[in-house]
Amino acid sequence: MAEATLPPTSANAPTATGRTKFIVGGAIILAAMVYLIVAGTFNSAQYFLTVDELVERQDALVGKDVRMSGVVLGETIQYDAETLTLSFTVAHIPDSAAEIEDEGGLAEVLHEAATNPNAQTLDVVVTGQPKPDLLQHEAQAIVEGHLDADGVFYADTLLLKCPTRYEEAVPEQAAVN
Amino acid sequence: MTAILGAILVFLSFLCAVYAALASMWGVRNDRPEFVESARNAAILTLPLLSGASLLLIGLLVSGAFQVEYVWSVSSLSMPDYLKVTALWGGQAGSLLFWAWLMSVFSAASMLRNWERERALMPYVVSATMGTLAFFIALVVFWENPFARLWILPNGEVVTAIFGPSAILSSLTTGYVNFAARVPGVLGSLLHDVTPLAAPLGAVPARLLDGQGLNPLLRHLGMVIHPPMLYLGFVGFVVPYAFAMAALATGQVSDSWIRATRRWTLVGWLFLSLGLILGGRWAYDVLGWGGYWAWDPVENAALMPWLAGTAFLHSVMIQEKRGMLRRWNMVLIILTYLQVIWGTFLTRSGLISSVHSFAQSAIGPLFLLFLGAAVIISVRMLMRRWDELRSDNHLDALLSREAAFLLNNLLFLIIDFEVFIGTHFTIFSELLTGEKVTVGPQWYNFVTKPFFLALVLLMGIAPLVAWKRSSIERLGRSLILPAVLTLVFVGVMFAFGFLTTGSALALTVIGLTLGTTLLEFHRGAAARTRSRGESYPVALWTLFGRNRRRYGGYVIHLGVVVMAIGVVGSNAFQQETQQTVAAGQTITIGDYIMRYDELERFPAVDDRTVTRAYVTVFKNGREVGQLRPRHDFYASGQPATIPGNLSQFDEDFYVLLVAWEEISLSSATFKIYVNPLINWVWAGGLIFIVGTFIAAWPDFSEERQRAAQVAALPAAQRA
Predict the structure, then answer these.
(1) What is the three-class DSSP state of B251?
(2) pLDDT tens-digit profile of B566-597?
(3) Which residues of A touch B429 (CB under 8 A)?
(4) What are the backbone dihedrals phi and psi of residue B627, each rounded to the nearest 5 degrees, phi first?
(5) For residue A120, what is the domain's CATH number?
(6) Domain of A145, in residue numbers
(7) Nearest Cβ partner for A9 among B207, B396, B641
(8) Is the CB of residue A92 less than 8 Å from the CB of residue A132?
(9) CA-angle at B22, arms to B16 and B26, nearest 5°
(10) Among B487, B467, B465, B486, which residue's Cα sits nearest to residue B476?
(11) The complex's ipTM?
């Protein structure tokens, strides 16, 4: 087909019925989108909670699929390669960006929480996964799963915050000549 | 000193960009063409200035000038040279400079290429591109300066500053710091975060012997190419936006701006597509979770502009052919640009928690400011010309090529909107309900799959639908052969139990589109053979030569079809297993048996300890390969797991070394994935590239013709 423009049609205004067809068609497609978003949300959306919030609302949330974030306490990491069971304890970290800013940045917050003896902690168990490289002391862990009646969080997925090189970090010691 | 020179070059480029943006606007408004010329020169000047600065930074990285804070944070003595070069975009400050440099390359190219042909538009193009560039350079100069150096105060504290202590500069800096401390709120913290100009008196240079080095996960070929591709894609779309703004400003909203940006859009689109595909490939090769797309906010940040950009790429064809969808096209390119800026912002501001995202940074509020200004300006200009953007023609029938493109726009925008909602779900849910709710891959797949499939189907049907009005019968006739073949093929596979219902449905749609696209090639070639007696191969070649855009586009569609097959295969039929075995033992999965042979540990270049397993893979009893999955542990404490991968035409055998017995190194744990059709995803990507080259290849005879026409016009009429 040649790439020439076609001449304009003689009727320049669409008829009322003509335009209705398109509006109805578009509305149906948009309705499908809304339906999918709502249904998808009911099926698979999860609460995103801190350790504090989850422990506080345990009774209501036992068994419910939630996502939680906390700081990993390195000395509690245990991995049994035979049964593929990984267990560790996380401590509470705030989730509000403003609070994190105020306390000096994410690394500072993670460190504070990991060394604070009064921070709320929660035991996490993950099965069927390899021990991730990034699972270290003071790493931020984001887990999805549910809290069991015994107070242990059974995680289906474990995500660890990718170490950042975009963060401002000043060397603590520098050799002075 | 090199660092000071680099800082000066960047600062000069900032002055040039600001001057160019303002002078161009002023010059065209007050009929002073000499200022427009001057602005153009300033704009082009940013290129050598930023090139120089980037080269200097690379020099600092390679030579290990660790007093420079950026060099200290991303480079180290043990890194190989090529990684030191790529560390240019390994951290925030360097990558912003890199972004700015690429922007200057593209704007200079458009200054040189389009100046004569689109005379009336160019002054506004200068303003729009230079305005964007000025913003990014400002971020670099004032807040994220890669040339800032580390100094030590008498009390042992370490500070950063661009210049060393000097009477004038240090007191200026102190005065500024005191002033900034008195400004309250967000503005105050922004002013406070500005990189200090000079170190206080009494400070000495920090002499650091080594740097932190690049994050091990970034020391991979994929990470070398992926960010530049993405940035080129982002920057590539700024140029069509600039032309769109110019069209709105001058009132020349019909065709010249679309024609001018045709290739720019293709270039930006190609790079963005490549960046997305390469990102997936890198994740697959290095991150070791067996997949390539996780619907992570940072991935989505690059996907959203791609969706709007692809819609724009198609929709402009309707404006060229029938003068329709003008308003749509303006909206689409503005949306693409805004999402480019938003996407760049999302990945750097820590707004959305993501496994990729970077720390909270001062530049977040600045991006929001710039974005706000861009929204206000774009919308105002669009509203001013809204009436003039009225279509020449109207949609006559629901079943027409025009309506198909309208549907194309709608579907892409719906997916774009859904991805946007999902990415920001936590923010919206908190605003509306007070609860933080989040959605994951399951949600994204559920809400987008039907629309993606609909797009694949549309890709197959739209070329068969005629302009203005088409009949169902005609459409049906064209579809019969591909439909029958596909249904038979899928039906047989389904009957044999190879397919699930979902994948059968998806493959039917994909097969239909594959068939109709191939038929398009055949029909075109057959027509030429019939009418001109050319042999089939010659006919096919001339077909491509004469209609590059169209048939290049069909090749790209073929690439999409191949990718779609790969996506269906690798998602629906992936197998996995994880087992611990002693040396000599085997793991069975599907048709495969993997024997664990031995484990070794040794130090390697780049300051790491490698633990490497040797495994032999058998398929249906026959040995098909030996793999060496390994685990790298860097001196800095960073680990990395690199899979062993046996790539075949129909599937990948992908194995990770997950754990091992520490003392004797005798037993080891492996996680194995069998990923069917995964390589079709990458192959589809290659076909993409080929198709884009075909579509974008310049038509030299057409160019000579156009140049002759422009030259023949009297000077006053050249526009």
Answers:
(1) coil
(2) 999 988 888 988 888 888 899 999 899 999 99
(3) 45
(4) -120, 160
(5) 2.40.50.140
(6) 47-160
(7) B396
(8) no
(9) 135
(10) B465
(11) 0.84
